[in-house]
């Protein structure tokens, strides 16, 4: 029979992804084919991932943000994303349940992976988000959040923290769920662009 796995998804992985994401079998198989075309090794390196992001933001610099996103999805920390990690990432950022999204957002902001978020970590992620906002668009931001520092300060104040305090995952999730404005401040709303790009590729 030979090894058909190279171009087809294993039944286990397919079932796993179907039950954990909102994608259909057809969608998953189509994406797997294009995934293998782009990444014949079956894994995406950090550099490839940054390249994918760069193609979505031709007028900005998404490198730092892409690096953080990559880190948050590289669940086994092997420096690559396999198809499962990639699809789960796609699902979470574009259509996951709010709680899952917030758990992911926490992982994104927890830069050193120690289970809490510091003010510096918030500034680091917010700065990487700002790198992706074209300069002209930055001019249209409200006065109290038109720099990474101001936006990070606004988020930090919302949580009522002193400069050296930390935010736990529970506090973070509860805080964001209680205040939709914070959700807007902590994220860069790119998933729609990425979905549109994927659709273009499919046609």
TrEMBL record:
GO biological process, one term: visual perception
Coiled-coil portions: none
Record keywords: Calcium, Lipoprotein, Metal-binding, Myristate, Repeat, Sensory transduction, Vision
Boundaries of every EF-hand domain copy: 61-96, 97-132
InterPro entries reported for this sequence: EF-hand-dom_pair, EF_Hand_1_Ca_BS, EF_hand_dom, Recoverin
Pfam families: EF-hand_5, EF-hand_7
Matches recorded under SUPFAM superfamilies: EF-hand
GO function terms (MF aspect): calcium ion binding
Family statement drawn from the similarity comment of this UniProt entry: Belongs to the recoverin family.
Function: May be involved in the calcium-dependent regulation of rhodopsin phosphorylation. Binds three calcium ions.
Protein name per the record: Recoverin a
């Amino acid at each position: 029979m030979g090894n058909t796995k190279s171009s087809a998804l294993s039944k286990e992985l397919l079932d796993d992804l179907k039950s954990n994401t909102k994608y259909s079998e057809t969608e998953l198989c189509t994406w797997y084919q294009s995934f293998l075309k782009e990444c014949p090794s079956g894994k995406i390196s950090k550099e490839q991932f940054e390249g994918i992001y760069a193609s979505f933001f031709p007028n900005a610099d998404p490198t730092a943000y892409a690096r953080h996103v990559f880190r948050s999805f590289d669940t086994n920390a092997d420096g690559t994303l396999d198809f499962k990690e990639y699809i789960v990432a796609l699902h979470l950022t574009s259509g996951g349940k709010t709680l899952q999204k917030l758990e992911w957002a926490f992982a994104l902001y927890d830069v050193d992976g120690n289970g809490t978020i510091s003010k510096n970590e918030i500034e680091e992620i917010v700065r990487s988000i700002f790198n992706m906002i074209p300069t002209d668009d930055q001019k249209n931001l409200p006065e109290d959040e038109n720099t990474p520092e101001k936006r990070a300060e606004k988020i930090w104040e919302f949580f009522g923290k002193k400069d050296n305090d930390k935010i736990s995952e529970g506090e973070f999730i509860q805080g964001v769920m209680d205040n939709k404005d914070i959700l807007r401040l902590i994220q860069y709303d790119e998933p729609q662009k990425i979905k549109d790009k994927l659709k273009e590729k499919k046609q």
